[in-house]
Every structure is written in structure tokens, then in C-alpha cells.
Amino acid sequence: IQMVDKYNKAEHDLLFYMLNSKEVALKYEAKAGFMYNDQYRVIASYIIDYYRKHNQLVFLNLFHLSVLHY
To answer: How many other CB atoms sit within 10 Å of the CB of residue 17?
Structure first.
């Protein structure tokens, strides 16, 4: 069993809510804007960038956007 620390879990859960709600993503950007986990921080940046251009997140479009950056 792998132990997950509470901060990592909180960031993971926040990403889930950001993927499902533009309002949550924009609150994250306005209030927190930082994640300790480098990978989660990059994902959060992609989500915020996507929501700047779209009202609703389509996961496949977000995935396509992230693939183009690498």
C-alpha cells in the first residue's frame, strides 16, 4: 500500500474539481495559484489556460493541447 500525504491528496482532489468546474479553476488561480507537486502545477496551468479560452472543459481537447506543448 502506498501512502499519500495529505497535501498531495488535496492537490489531486483540487485538480479533479478544477477539471469539472471553471469556477473552481478560476478561484484556484485567484486565491492559491500554486501547487507543491510539479506535475500537478503543470496540469493546473493547462486547465487554467484552457478555461481562459473556453467555457466548458473537454478533456480530449485539454489532452491534445498538452501533447502539442511537448
So the answer is: 13
